[in-house]
Amino acid sequence: MDRKIWLSSPHMSGREQKYIEEAFATNWIAPLGPNVNAFEAGLEAYLGDGVYVAALSSGTAAIHLSLVLLGVEAGDEVLCQSMTFSASANPIVYQGATPVFVDSEPDSWNISPELLETAIKDRIKKGNKPKAIIAVHLYGMPYDVDAVHEVAKAYDIPVVEDSAEALGSRFRDKKCGVFGNFSVLSFNGNKIITTSGGGALVSHSDELKHKAIFLSTQARDESPAYLHSHIGYNYRMSNIVAGIGRGQLEVLDDRVKQRRSNHEFYKQALESDSISFLEEPENCFSNRWLSCVLTKSFEMREDIRTHFESKNIECRPLWKPMHQQPVFKDAPKYLNGVSDRLFEKGLCLPSGSNLTEDELDRVVQTFKSYFI
Ligand SMILES: *Cc1c(COP(=O)(O)O)cnc(C)c1O
Predict the structure, then answer these.
(1) Beta bridge partner(s), residue 159
(2) Is 199 in the pocket of ligand 1 (CB under 6 A)?
(3) pLDDT of residue 224
(4) For residue 56, is it left (φ>0), alpha (ψ between -120 and 50) or beta?
């Protein structure tokens, strides 16, 4: 059997261990310390636009805290892109609120601004104005920031920008991760840079950053005793993990280049009448976190996928939309068929920044051999 090719595996720069050793040497083995502060400062500088970053234990924790900070409570409704990973939606349920799913538009595979407006109008008519909108830059491709935020503004509903897959992507001249009332980053093991596990909450004031840090460290009021006037969480990033993040941030732009070059390589080799790739819409620059293809049919998608599996190459269908998930079967939804079609026909190819030329060739040859 040929060596396993992974979908998206961690790619260290070699500079991470220096920061971890510093943490050991100074005994900062805690969910605070110099690496955490420096990683936050590095992310703030990278994203630009004057944002404030709180480093947390995961992207999911960041989505949860954003909903807490927006005052989402039991009985509320939160609009959420249906075509996404479950972590975008689960925190809505943590708050006792109800997710309301909105389908995608074909140009970016992300939340459809038209359908979003339809959903908002209908929820308001039904007497429950949504408390927030969770929009996602799926696979690194920016959602239509102009249109989505225009709708959000018109109805005065805050946006949580799920940028977990889109660090290094841009809309117009701004980095993804600066557009939402809150924005979310993830450093899980499969993301474009990783801390093994981790995330961050991006906001637009020092006060919100410190509220997030307060909530993420058990909400201890300033008092010599353990005094609590809020429910807290244990969501802060550790100083060890932040050391990995510092090393990874130094090579982020190289990682984006490599992933984009993987995508270009696949497109050159595989694009045909029956295989298509998602183009960047106007104003969008994607980090191409995962390279995805659309096949002609569900059967073809499955044949190719199992063919890859038999050759020890990991590949995956696109995310199964949330409105199709058993756990969300009762959630209200606004559909147009786009995400169902994407799920039927779409496949993610191995996309790691550490894939060798030989491995990329093997993927392409395996793909082509399916057609022969
Ligand atoms: C990975 C991911 C998350 C969650 O991030 P974690 O750090 O794994 O908790 C949220 N949303 C999307 C779209 C993701 O891909």
Answers:
(1) 133
(2) yes
(3) 87
(4) beta
Q: Is 182 in the pocket of ligand 1 (CB under 6 A)?
A: no
Q: Is 164 in the pocket of ligand 1 (CB under 6 A)?
A: yes
pLDDT in tens, 106-126: 999 999 999 999 999 999 999
Which atom of ligand 1 is nearest to 138's Cα? 13
Average pLDDT score over residue span 10-30: 95
Ordered by where they begin, the domains of the chain are 16-249 (3.40.640.10), 252-370 (3.90.1150.10)
Inter-residue contact 167 to 304 (CB < 8 Å): no
Q: Which residue shows structure tokens 């201890």?
A: 220
Mind listing the pLDDT tens digit for each residue in 261-282?
999 999 999 999 999 999 999 9
C-beta of residue 180 within 8 angstroms of C-beta of residue 341: no
Ligand 1 atom at minimum distance from 87 CA: 10
pTM for the structure as a whole: 0.97
Residue 290, ligand 1, Cβ within 6 A: no
Q: Which residues of 50-59 are buried (b: 16+ CB within 10 A; e: fewer)?
A: ebbbbbbbbb
Look-up: residue for tokens 């060739």? 361
For residue 139, give the amino acid letter. Answer: Y
CA of 142 to the centre of ligand 1 (A): 15
Tokens 């199992």 belong to 306
Q: Average pLDDT in the 136-150 region?
A: 98
